[in-house]
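Pilot study result, target chain (485 residues):
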Amino acid sequence: MILIVILTSVYALGSIIGLWKLFEKAGEAGWKAVVPIYSTLTWLQIIGRPWWWIIMLFIPIVNVFYGVGMIVDLMRSLGKERFYQIAAAVLVPFIYFPYLGFKKDVSYKGKASEIPVGKKSVAREWADAIIFAVVAATLIRWMIMEAYTIPTPSMENSLLVGDFLFVSKFHYGTRTPRTPLQVPLTHQKIWFTEIPSYLNWIQLPSYRLPGFSHVKREDVVVFNVPGVAENNYMMPRDQWIDYPVDLKTNYIKRCVGIPGDVLEVKDRQLVINGQPLKNPENMQYRYHVISKDEINQRVIDKLGLDPEDYSPYGRTAPDQVEYAMFLSAKKVEELKAMPFIKSVELPQTDHESDARIFAGSKYSPWNGDNFGPLTLPSQGMTIEINDSTLSIYGSTIRDFDHNKNVKIENSKLFIDGQEVKKYTFQQNYYFMMGDNRDNSLDSRYWGFVPEDHIVGKGFFIWLSLDKYGSFFNKIRWKRFFKLID
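Predicted structure:
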């Protein structure tokens, strides 16, 4: 946090000092650079742009383009039109503005809107346009919003496979880059290849810039899934890659537990701090359905079920066909009302220990239906180190809590060769679950989500495609611009 304050102060101070001197070169009083709003109006006057541009600077995404445009115009007003000069002004204004401001041979050439644009070759115009687009898109993707696609049914029916959504970075505050040597606009690999898109030669400390909200219970959150196994799904173990935090696979789930919460699942019902948590409206479970005959495809389509949502067991009697179906409460009622349906039952909850479950041990014989109680670590929380606590928190302390040289041996914790009897957590942790509760690989199976793995908040759906829909029904029009809740 201290480093963030220092960096923010250096950025702001350098930019203001630079603008003070540049305003003076343009014949304006330097002190105007210090006054919020007024400094922007003065800037617009210097470059010859209308006052209403200031309104555009308050509109997310749009403000990036107008802000970059103002910087480009300011450089043109100073006779600095080469690409490296504009790039320096956009990327490091706190350095480049003072440099130009104190440089004696830099002078004001007039309003950018009145300066004729120099003739460029077609190749140069295309190159400048492409580079500008890449820079702008990279900044937007890093600071404001990033596009994301729903690949699996773990959040159905709240989010559907084929939903395209925007993830807000500014809600929780964007993270500073940890892996700077990366091809822009890529994630783990270069598009359409198996070639890594990054070099991990440099790993920077990561900090979160100020946001206007914190992760809350019931938020739909995109995050980097912590575990190595989950990042190498379907890959042979000898080919697993331990990705840097910011390049781990993106998951989207609902936050059901925040730091300090005591979380428990009792007969499928989430209980937080002793109180049942409100269930999502479209939450699904796996039901056992018995029909008098095979269910017609028209009925399946009417219920909005994709092939992944149901599995026929086959005919188990002359007048009985059985299915497994992932259904919301609303769809259960629709199905029960159909005359050919004999029963729609939720199987009894499982009370057997599941070896796949997170923190499964002799101290925690849990499963997906009955889990906990479990206290979520919060920054500053201290625990006693023993066999029981290590079975739950040991892997988190070793892998995610910013420690080096951690060993767990004979129910003891060693950090830098020293045995630790009590441990204090260094960051916050969250618990994430999918709304499709019986078809979701979530925190019940791989554990806590560290705060530095949080990417952003699911904001709204801008497109939705049904991969099983016909040509005329491919687009789910009703989901356009639907806010995520």
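One observation from the pilot: Residues 2-25 form the longest helix (24 residues). A full batch analysis is planned for the follow-on phase.
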